[in-house]
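Practice problem 4.
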């Protein structure tokens, strides 16, 4: 469902309209409360007050809610994400303010931790750094940051930043995030062989022998996800610090997981506030 800039401007023309929206979303059953003039709160005739921004990404921010809402709208419309420099230009704020807004909006896209089920494709991706990976003494040496992805066929995505691509790191990640009833598809890396020992159905395709698809077994879904994520990072953000890479990975996993959600992305993000 599309949500256009014209609809957004009609829904949120003023600061009070934005505050009213947050209030009614967070306190739908509260009655007899009225907005307090000059303050971001509501009160009833008995003097009780409600501060609807408390505990949200807007709390203690001096930036107008209209700008916050517009930033969320921009994120909801941009398939490839929104950089802080773009927010700086669009909102007319400092880069520091834009970066903080982007970080907070991205925090709304953390997703849930319920176990993945069904057919799950798993794979690793190497992000950032200089040059390619290189081998030394049989081990991969790289200054790139490693992401480990798990994607349900026609379902949700989950990505974790890991310190290495070793079996002692990746297999526990699968155990923590994938239900034991799931079937896991992967490439032929030998570390995945232990998945059967810990109780998973597991099948592989051998990319080294140019085997990409065997019946229903493939990792094309997650490889397509990595392609989208890397294009977005290179094209929109240009580079991402390893310190914050997890939040960017969460953003694109969230976008993937809710790509077919019936509500507009803007409404979905506002539900997370």
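Answer key:
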């Amino acid at each position: 469902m599309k949500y256009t800039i014209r609809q957004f401007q009609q829904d949120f023309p003023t600061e009070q309209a934005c505050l009213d929206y947050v209030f009614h979303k967070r306190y739908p059953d509260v009655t007899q409360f009225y907005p307090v003039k000059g303050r971001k709160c509501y009160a009833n005739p008995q003097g009780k007050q409600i501060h609807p921004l408390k505990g949200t990404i807007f709390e203690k921010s001096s930036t107008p809610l209209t700008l916050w809402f517009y930033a969320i709208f921009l994120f909801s419309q941009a398939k490839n994400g929104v950089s802080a420099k773009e927010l700086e230009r669009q909102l007319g704020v400092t880069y520091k303010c834009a970066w903080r807004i982007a970080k907070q909006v991205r925090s709304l896209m953390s997703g849930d931790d319920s176990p993945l089920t069904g057919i799950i494709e798993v794979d690793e991706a190497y992000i950032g750094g200089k040059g390619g990976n290189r081998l030394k003494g049989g081990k991969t040496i790289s200054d790139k940051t490693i992401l480990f992805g798990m994607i349900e066929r026609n379902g949700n995505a989950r990505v974790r930043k890991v310190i290495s691509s070793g079996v002692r790191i990746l297999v526990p990640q699968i155990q923590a995030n994938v239900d034991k009833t799931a079937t896991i598809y992967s490439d032929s890396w030998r570390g995945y062989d232990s998945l059967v020992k810990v109780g998973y159905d597991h099948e592989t395709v051998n990319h080294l022998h140019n085997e990409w698809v065997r019946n229903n077994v493939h990792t094309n879904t997650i490889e397509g996800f990595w392609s989208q994520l890397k294009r977005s990072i290179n094209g929109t953000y240009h580079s991402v610090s390893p310190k914050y890479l997890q939040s960017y990975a969460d953003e694109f996993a969230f976008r993937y997981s809710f790509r077919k959600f019936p509500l507009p992305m803007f409404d979905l993000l506002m539900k997370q506030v």
